[in-house]
Amino acid sequence: MRLKDKVAIITGAGAGMGRVTAVLFSEEGARTVVVDIDEKAGQETVDMIRAKGQEALFISTDIADVSQVSSMVRKVTEEYGRLDILVNNAGVYARGDVVSIDEKLWDRIMNVNLRGAFLCCKYSIPEMIRNGGGTIVNVASECGIGAWKNQIVYNVSKAGLIFLTKSIAVDFASKNVRANCVCPGTTETPLAAAYFAKQPDPEKARRDFEEIRPANRLGRPEETAYGILYLASDESPYATGAVLSIDGGYTAQ
């Protein structure tokens, strides 16, 4: 098992890529802490893991709220006595350019996608150091590498997440805390499905997203989850500050 007895927090683990990652981590021996603002969805993930005889804990948390994040990390260390892995996966999406986007919507997206990851890192890193080190994997996006049209706040939040990762990597390497990020392309998740469903021609919208990348398809959640697993595991001890693109070749063009 690649994560045997490791304690791992995964945010946004109530659905999609976060849920797939949580299940995979548990299969690899981790004691997985499912963090989500949606209590029903988060508990469903925990139930899936426990049904396989594996260990999991759900903590309902709004990651944009500093008091809830600090409380969540404290509960984890009280329950398990340590923290080894943090996966910042929670994220939200919005359309709009710099002129059209509403200021409150800008703040909401930045608060979850960037501030939330910042807070989780801020309160997790001291616990990792106390235990001799740890590893952080941030889930950014291909949109953090190259801007996509008409989604400025999502682009900026994911670009910021990449540099949050790099900054933590250089600041805490001497403390044996690693930080890396994955940048998935458009992936088969509820978030993507909801976007396509809102388009005038959902099938055409989907094909357009597939055809812009050399692999000519969307990603699958487990493909990104295995990248996260590698960076979270002891198989990547020299990797820190890395940006792993898992996008069907899109950003290679």
Q: Strand order across the biggest sheet?
A: 3-2-1-4-5-6-7
Order of helices and strands: EHEHEHEHEHEHHHE
State the major sheet: 7 strands, parallel
Derived structural class = alpha/beta
Average pLDDT metric: 97
Broad shape: globular
The level 1 CATH classification of the largest domain is: Alpha Beta
Compute the separation of the termini in Å.
36 Å
- Domain unit count: 2
Helicity, as a percent range: 40-55%
Keywords: Oxidoreductase
EC number: 1.1.1.47
GO molecular function: glucose 1-dehydrogenase [NAD(P)+] activity
Enzyme class: oxidoreductase
Describe the structure.
With 253 residues, this protein is an alpha/beta fold. The protein folds into two domains: 7-184 and 220-244, NAD(P)-binding Rossmann-like Domain (Rossmann fold); 186-218. The chain is 47% helix and 15% strand. The protein has eight helices and seven strands; from the N terminus they run βαβαβαβαβαβαααβ. A seven-stranded parallel β-sheet has the order 3-2-1-4-5-6-7, with helices on both faces. α2 links the parallel β2 and β3. The protein starts with 6 loop residues before the first strand and ends in a 7-residue tail after the last strand.
